[in-house]
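quick one before i forget lol
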Amino acid sequence: MKIKIIRSETDYDAALKRLDKIFDEPKDSKLGDEAEILGLLIENYEKKHYPIDPPDPVETIRIRMEEMQLKHRDLAEIFGGKNRVSEVLNRKRKLTLEMIRKVNSLLHISPEILIREYSLSDHQ
């Protein structure tokens, strides 16, 4: 097992190729240990060089609605009516503190995500 820190795209590509070859090795073997370590090194490199910002609050609500198979009408009570749901999801109105509390309670979305700054639509 010859493992080194991933410092370049060449190192990254080589690590991905190696991991692809040994990915299915048993966890309690030398190759399984190598695969696990390579996975950690690759993940670390990707976090530094290919960061992915989490979705904004509105997109997060939309994703959770899809996961839970909810419609706009299902959130009317949280937002104070169907029109308000539409305004928030179409970025015409910001989430209020009360909405954030209710969304957190019903959809189980972290308040830290819901309080993140996001832009309103330019078409108001």
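fyi The radius of gyration is 22 Å.
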